[in-house]
Amino acid sequence: MNDSILNSVSTEISVEQTFEEDPCAYYQQPYHRERFILVAVIGTFVAVINIIENVFLSFMLFTKKSYRSSYMLYLALLAFFDIFIAGAYIPLMSLSHIVDYLHSVVLLRAWFTYMIPMITISHIAMTASSFLMVAASFERYCVTVQSKYTKFLNHHRFKIAASSVFLGVLTKVTHGLEFSITIQEPCVGTMNEYSLELSPLALNETYAAFWKIWIRSVLTILLPFTLLAIMNIRIVLVIQRTEFQFLNVQKLSEAKRKSRVRAATRTLVFVVFTYLLSNVLNVIITIWEYIDYDGLTQDLAAFYLISVDVVSLLTIFAGALRFPIYMTCQSELRKEFISKLKKMYYWSPYKGYDPASNAMEELKKSAEDGMEETESRYPGLLVHLSTVLIKAESNDTVIRKDQRTELNNFS
Predict the structure, then answer these.
(1) Which end of the chain is more exposed for a tag (fewer CB within 10 A), N or C?
(2) Alpha-carbon distance 140 to 145, whole Å?
(3) pLDDT for 405
(4) What is the pTM of this model?
(5) pLDDT digits (tens, 9 = 90+) for 85-113
(6) What is the CA radius of gyration of the chain?
């Protein structure tokens, strides 16, 4: 939910066309039925799927130490912030269209009660997610192209992730201070009871030029989009060039290690690719707003309103696609997910707990986890057994010689 989306929502709710003879008259925006289906129906469904998937992902990634100490930390934080983004979509976007569709003053008052703090949190979550993807892509870029920086990035991964989140908070924390909600006394009890306007801070020319354009738009939207596109194109080209080298790897352990690295890189490339696709229209609208805002919002009002609805829907749709991407590209996560589902099934109150089945699953998982270790120790075990047998045979030979010597002496 970027600035253009907020402008669309606020216009739709509080800045409707009015006539001088009836300043409280309320007129719906064009295509309100189609937009209601797009946002309130389809968007809400996608948001719910997004929340369910990312709650499960957050639980799965944060509860395992090996995930928290690897590049998976970025994916865990992305899932965490996706919950806030999708969670804010329903009360901010879906409810605004429901208010407009039903003409409900009660829902209108509820919307204005939580709108400013919730949209601020949503902006912080989206910006932090963008910076986290840049940090994760840079790490994958170094692993693929500039391996000499990999050790430094691994050692300082937590600090880099924390800095990305802090930067998201810093650049968007003032967002809630840019709007002012006023009550129009003559229109109390109608759909024009509230008016959402820009605050004196937002109207300040220095603040608008420096902070909103160069910091808000360039640093948090255009720069991450450009960096992600450049780094991931470079990563894809390098992966394609080294495909033949990977196939010619002789050692099994080296092949497995490179396979894991490639799977991790492929996962992030797909995640970033969906992010870029979902933000192409957002970037176009953002640039267009600063070039010809009046022409976009007045001459092309219908296109503008539908575009910002599509942008918001694409944002949560990209978040919902991450879970299938992880399950497709990451075999370890896929096995973990299947194991969690089986445990939930075995502990189901309708089915009851099956200790035998659960025990077999635990044994199977332990066997799979220890397979590589067992294979690596197997040759050493044979050598150890051979040594023991040789020593035992030597001891038996010595004992027999001693016994013959004693018999000869006795004779």
Answers:
(1) C
(2) 8
(3) 46
(4) 0.76
(5) 999 999 999 999 999 888 889 999 999 99
(6) 31
Give the domain ranges of the chain.
3-329
Query: Average pLDDT for residues 278-304, to the nearest whole number?
Result: 84
Do residues 182 and 16 lie in contact, with contact meaning Cβ atoms separated by under 8 Å?
no
In this structure, whether the domain defined by 3-329 belongs to CATH 1.20.1070.10 is answered with: yes
Q: Token digits for 163?
A: 């800095």
